[in-house]
Design brief:
Elements lengths: L2 E7 L8 E4 L10 E5 L6 H13 L10 H8 L10 E6 L4 E9 L2 E5 L13 E3 H9 L5 H9 L10 H31 L4 H5 L5 H10 L4 H7 L5 H47 L2 H8 L6 E9 L4 E8 L4 E3 H4 L2 H21 L5 E5 L7 H14 L4 E6 L2 H11 L5 E10 L3 E5 L7 H6 L5 H22 L14 H14 L3 H18 L11 H18 E2 L4 E2 L1 E3 L2 E3 L11
Parallel strand pairs: 3-12, 3-13, 7-11, 11-12
Antiparallel strand pairs: 1-2, 1-4, 4-5, 5-6, 8-9, 9-10, 13-14, 15-16, 17-18
Helix pairs in contact: 3-12, 5-9, 9-12, 13-14, 16-17, 16-18, 16-19, 17-18, 18-19
Length: 570
């Protein structure tokens, strides 16, 4: 089962319906998706929306009330107040989840996750990494338990836990019998009803209150200077026997609770013990400090629900990971551990879908590429949604994955309060909007979309043709940065006429499509259509409908990936 598309409406920063596609055409196989955009552009909204829809999970602040966290999912610019996410799968099935009012409160509708995604969370965020690393050893149990949900239930509880529960329950039963027998003796001696006394045997304080109500108080007797008879002394002695018996039952009951808690924790701890076996191997493959470490282990204490990360150093010394490793290595350890948990869930039937929401940004830059290779080796048959705000890192990641893994690229930008973000579907035919508006009579709309298509073409081909571009801070480039190099290369490849025609109408993009001035509004629809036609003509010469790629450099020749489109001069 793969994800074909996500349709988001009224969710967080997206007020109106917007779709993120995982394929380059309606009939193509859904692929992984690399989503790039600046911080605050809306990348995480899609990551959150996907997990919210499929699993019902969503990011929450610490100790945040559920109603408040659900309220944060709603978009306040949505005119109809609808908050919903719909996922379309590769088999044609759909799954929809919304935030709606049930009674007087907000609810996630439906409450249950998609039947196929009950095993574990499918999204990893920087927050999960930080939450794990900063949690106390005892609190980490809750972090993992929430992430794994029902996956741990597939792990068989070892027989010794059931034996421990049986022994504890048997001991409690014996002590209850002894307590009741002692209480019956006391009731008979004190000429009281055992039925009335029995309801006071759950704790010593209740028993003492009953005993005093019967007129027995050694302190009062001592103040009065009363001389107790042998029968009275016997009653006081028997009361002490009952008190000890009550305490014995309470202790036995605590042992039953402890045994059951250990049994409840056992599946998750057994699961963690299994996945931790591969932790050292994975860590040493990637970390540059691996030579100083013999092994990395999870120290598990089911009785106290504590999870501690420890490392055995090359000299045999065992240390807490937090006291030895750098933040980058701790991030890496936590990431590898969560990835192992997700792999476990997939081995028990959960579809191989993973969301990495800027999580690799937390991994040190010196080991990012190794992490990408590790993902490709260990999760090569999974479908990914990976978000980036660092464009250089996105290029490094895509370079690693392009060798063996197919993916689509999407860019998200221009977020606005009332409009939401804008998605550029890289490697999809971006000319559709321009073709549609060419049939209309709005010169500004035509010039604007012609200029936008030219920006897309120039951006893609500056990479595929490997043209030179002056680096800018943050790798942010405009048409003025990318077009000159692309135009020069295309002219040398036999497309001089098409490029010159575009250049001849470029002024329309500058003063009519992108900027306002009064006299520009008088330009004719004919000029606008000529500009649109010239950009479309160039697009059709460099864009391949078959492989969904532009003309590019492959060794010393220039063609698209499938070879259907090639350089007229090559």
């Amino acid at each position: 089962m793969r994800i074909r598309s996500i349709r988001v409406k009224g969710f967080r920063g997206i007020p109106h319906a917007m779709t993120l596609n995982f394929s380059n055409s309606e009939k193509a196989t859904p692929l992984s998706c690399l989503l790039v955009g600046e911080n605050g552009s809306g990348k995480s909204t899609f990551a959150d929306a996907l997990e919210f829809c499929i699993t019902g999970r969503y990011p929450r602040f610490a100790n945040e009330p559920r109603q408040q966290s659900l309220e944060r999912l709603r978009n306040f610019a949505a005119t109809d107040g609808v908050t919903e996410v719909e996922v379309v799968f590769s088999d044609g099935s759909t799954f929809k989840r919304s935030v709606g009012i049930s009674g007087r409160s907000l609810e996630s509708i439906p409450e249950s996750p998609h039947p196929a995604f009950r095993g574990s969370g499918l999204a990893l965020r920087r927050e999960e990494i930080i939450s794990f690393l900063r949690s106390t050893p005892k609190a980490r149990h809750g972090v993992f338990a929430e992430f794994m949900r029902s996956a741990a239930a597939t792990v068989e509880i070892p027989a010794e836990y059931s034996v421990a529960i049986s022994k504890a329950e048997s001991l409690r039963s014996d002590r209850i019998t002894s307590r009741d027998q002692a209480a019956k003796v006391l009731a008979k001696s004190a000429r009281a009803s055992f039925g009335n006394l029995h309801s006071k045997l759950h704790d010593v304080q209740s028993f003492n209150s009953w005993f005093i109500s019967r007129g027995y108080s050694r302190k009062q007797d001592e103040r009065r200077g009363a001389t107790l008879s042998a029968a009275q002394e016997s009653i006081y002695a028997q009361a002490n026997v009952v008190r000890r018996a009550i305490s014995g039952v309470r202790k036995a009951n605590d042992e039953v609770i402890k045994a059951k808690k250990n049994a409840a924790n056992a599946p998750l701890f057994s699961l963690l013990a299994n996945v931790a076996e591969s932790l050292t191997e994975s860590f040493k493959k990637i970390s540059p400090t691996a030579e100083s470490v013999q092994s990395v282990n999870l120290d598990l204490a089911p009785q106290s629900s504590e999870i501690t990360l420890k490392a055995t150093l090359a000299n045999g010394v065992i240390v807490r990971a937090e006291s030895y490793f750098s933040e980058a290595n701790l991030d890496l350890l936590a990431l590898l551990l969560f990835l192992s948990l997700m792999k476990f869930a997939s081995s028990h039937g959960q579809p191989k879908v993973m969301v990495l929401d800027d999580v690799l940004q937390s991994v040190d830059s010196s080991i990012r590429v190794k992490v990408a290779r590790y993902l490709l080796e260990e999760f090569g048959d999974w479908q990914f949604l990976v978000t980036f705000h660092d464009r250089l890192w996105k290029e490094q990641f895509s370079a690693v994955f392009s060798a063996k893994h197919q993916f689509v690229e999407r860019e998200i930008h221009d977020w606005g309060f009332s409009s939401g973000p804008r998605i550029v579907e890289a490697r999809r035919d971006a000319s559709g909007v321009l073709r549609d508006c060419l049939t209309g009579d709005d010169p500004r709309l035509i010039c604007g979309n012609a200029g936008y298509l030219l920006e897309v073409l120039s951006d893609w081909m500056s990479k595929s043709l490997q043209t030179s571009v002056t680096r800018r801070h943050g790798d942010k480039y405009t048409l003025g940065d990318t077009w000159p190099g692309v135009a020069k290369k295309l002219r040398s490849l036999g497309l001089r006429n098409e490029v010159d025609r575009v250049d001849g109408y470029m002024w329309l993009r500058n003063i009519h499509g992108a900027h306002y001035n009064e006299w520009a509004t008088g330009l004719s629809i004919v000029d606008a259509r000529h500009f649109g036609d010239s950009v479309l003509e160039l697009w059709e010469r460099v864009w391949c409908e078959s492989c969904r790629q532009t003309l590019g450099k492959h060794g010393n020749v220039f063609h698209c990936n499938c070879g259907l489109i090639s350089s007229p001069a090559g």
